[in-house]
Write a structure and sequence with these properties.
It is a single chain. The protein is of the alpha/beta class. The strands form three sheets. Strands 6, 7, 8, 9, 10, 11, 12, 13 and 14 form a nine-stranded mixed beta sheet that branches. It is globular.
Length: 399
């Protein structure tokens, strides 16, 4: 993995002889432009300028490449936005090694004012608290299991009015908060998501996850405003971002009532709390923007069993998310029904069929995992809200 800034002349890149493919993040100043693969010959030790130029040209397109190299237009200097303070919330449970790496990256942010709040979501030992103590950041313990309990505790404990969330398996880019600040420079923006790229692509499972779709939503800033959105697009909240890289104004979180504690990791739903929040933000008429300048790097699952569980949870949690929309009628039920039908019968089942017939680059076990999760969603939906009611009543519950 390398980064290249097109504001500077290209230079050859040295690679390990065992490397067969190099992934390059191409920037122009603070703006990420593309994630470019470069195929390598056996035992190749260096990627030449010509080879880099050809790969970047192929990814970006000739017109943009000529603009960048020939400087045919003058770059308009972006005004330095106001840099308001952020509260960065990291929710974690029993992953001290990943957490230590995340906190180390947060200590090197290029930003003048921010705090870090670690919410320990019922870890089973003191290893998490020890990591936080060594990092010298705030520690909060949330005894109720469930990621959305931890997220709510985080924004209620936060010092500042802009709350940024990332996960313990993430390494943040040093310009992450500046990217978020750029988005929030528009006072109407209530929420922002950002670009998520793989921290490494070293195993077959990690490559499969990227082939499956990964986490990034592209390199173009997009704002989602209710007057411009069809109702079906408000359901498709997965197109707006991912919970590992999201930020909100405190007023927006309060307006929609915070995160739904019945959803996401640590509950029978297995996820969906971030999508539910994005959906409710849009339904409330609050602008949500995707800002690729706010970049983080995610540690994908390294093994196939872990990837299978993740994809199955994705199917289960997305189904539970759709069932909540059906139940609460935040969009008309006819729209939700058509969306769910298209997801299952026009996406999941054909995808399984293509992989079964070996007409897809995705293995059968992987596509089947999401379908299995989707079919389990009704059971998970009933269980997750029953579990949440018990937890709120003070009863002891076990997952």
């Amino acid at each position: 993995m390398r980064s290249i800034d097109l504001a500077h002349p290209l230079q050859p890149v040295t690679v390990e002889p065992s490397c067969r493919r190099l992934m390059i993040l191409v920037w122009l100043e603070r703006q990420p432009l593309a994630f470019v693969p470069v195929s390598l010959a056996l035992h190749q030790r260096e990627v030449s300028v010509d080879q880099l130029q050809a790969a970047i040209l192929s990814a970006l397109g000739g017109d943009l490449w000529q603009v960048v190299l020939g400087q045919q237009i003058e770059q308009q200097a972006l005004p330095t936005p106001h840099l308001p303070p952020f509260s960065v919330v990291v929710c974690t449970r029993d992953r001290p090694e990943s957490l230590a790496r995340c906190l180390a990256s947060l200590q090197h942010l290029d930003y003048p004012g921010y705090e870090v709040v670690v919410v320990d979501n019922a870890s089973r030992d003191q290893a998490t608290a020890a990591v936080v103590e060594r990092a010298g950041v705030r520690y909060v313990y949330e005894p109720r299991p469930g990621l959305d309990w931890a997220r709510n505790r985080g924004w209620n404990e936060a010092m500042y009015d802009l709350i940024a969330y990332t996960d313990d398996d993430v390494v943040v880019d040093h310009g992450w908060l500046r990217g978020l600040a750029h988005s929030f420079a528009d006072p109407e923006v209530a929420a922002t998501t950002g670009l998520i790229l793989p921290l490494e692509l070293e195993t077959e499972a990690q490559l499969l996850f990227e082939t499956y779709g990964g986490m990034h939503k592209g390199f173009k800033r997009i704002c989602f405003r209710r007057p411009d959105l069809p109702e079906a697009q408000m359901i498709a909240a997965h197109m707006t971002g991912v919970g590992a890289n999201m930020a909100f104004r405190r007023t927006a979180l309060a307006h929609v009532g915070g995160f739904d504690t019945a959803l996401d990791v640590g509950t029978p739903s297995g996820g969906g709390g971030d999508l539910d929040m994005f959906h409710r933000i849009m339904v409330a008429g609050l602008p949500l923007c995707y800002e690729p300048r706010a970049l983080v790097w995610h540690q994908h699952r390294r093994d196939q069993p872990g990837l299978r569980r993740q994809i199955e949870n994705n199917g289960r949690s997305f189904g539970a998310y759709l069932l909540k929309i059906w139940q609460t009628q935040t969009v008309p039920r006819g729209v939700t029904l058509r969306f769910a039908y298209a997801w299952v019968f026009r996406y999941l089942l054909p995808q399984v069929g293509r992989s079964l017939l070996r007409k897809s680059n995705l293995p059968f076990w992987l596509t089947l995992a999401e379908l299995r999760g989707a079919l389990d969603a009704p059971r998970a939906y009933r269980m997750t809200y029953a579990h949440d009611r018990q937890l709120r009543s003070g009863m002891k519950v076990a997952l």
